[in-house]
Amino acid sequence: MEVGFLNAAILLIIGISTWIIARIIYVIHRSSKPLYNKPPGPLSTLIVLGSGGHTAEMINLLAVMQMDRFKPRYYIAAATDNMSLQKARVLEDSLMDKVELGGTSQFMQIYRSREVGQSYVTSVGTTLVALTHALWLMIKIRPQVILCNGPGTCIPLCVIAFFFKVFGIRWSSIFYVESIARVRRLSLSGLLLYKLRMVDQLFVQWPQLKSKYPRANYVGRLM
After folding, report:
1. Transmembrane stretches, by residue range (predicted)?
2. How far apart are CA 192 and CA 189, in angstroms?
3. For residue 39, what pLDDT is reported?
4. Which tens digits make up the pLDDT trace of 70-94?
5. pTM for the full model?
6. Which terminus of the chain has a smaller tally of CB atoms within 10 A, N or C?
């Protein structure tokens, strides 16, 4: 009886593991292909902002996009970042005169996994808190598109989005635009997502990056 139960448990574990591996392979293969065969309606979009030049570059990128195709828009910044969401609000305020664009945005903050100068020992606890918070936000937002350009706060969101696709919860297309400041190598966030194949499209702004990372898309200088 016990042997039969053990064999059944082993077969169940093998079956589940095989299914998960197959789904991961499928998601990686499918992610590089267009999501729709025909022009879709508005897509709910999660926009990850970061301190320093990340937010300035993201705002410049959004300014040239067809914003009516990306709504509602959810802006997320680190809980300790007090400037990025203000800049996003200024952008959204400039769209208020356009009925089809304005009034479709929300602004949120997320806990950071690790602050600058924080010890690695204490960062274990804050990382768990950040992951839990990111999971709650992703369940709440369930975006169809995720747009990011380098801040570390995008990592837990993108990882959760990837596994949402694996388990069939929500299909979010992840687009990563590497910062123009990255000339010779990808940022740590970009490199991690690139190596793990968790992004649908990764864009670089320098040809030498394209030659070093062949799966990236070279789009020239956007800023």
Report:
1. 6-28, 120-139, 159-177
2. 5
3. 55
4. 989 999 999 888 899 999 999 998 8
5. 0.86
6. N
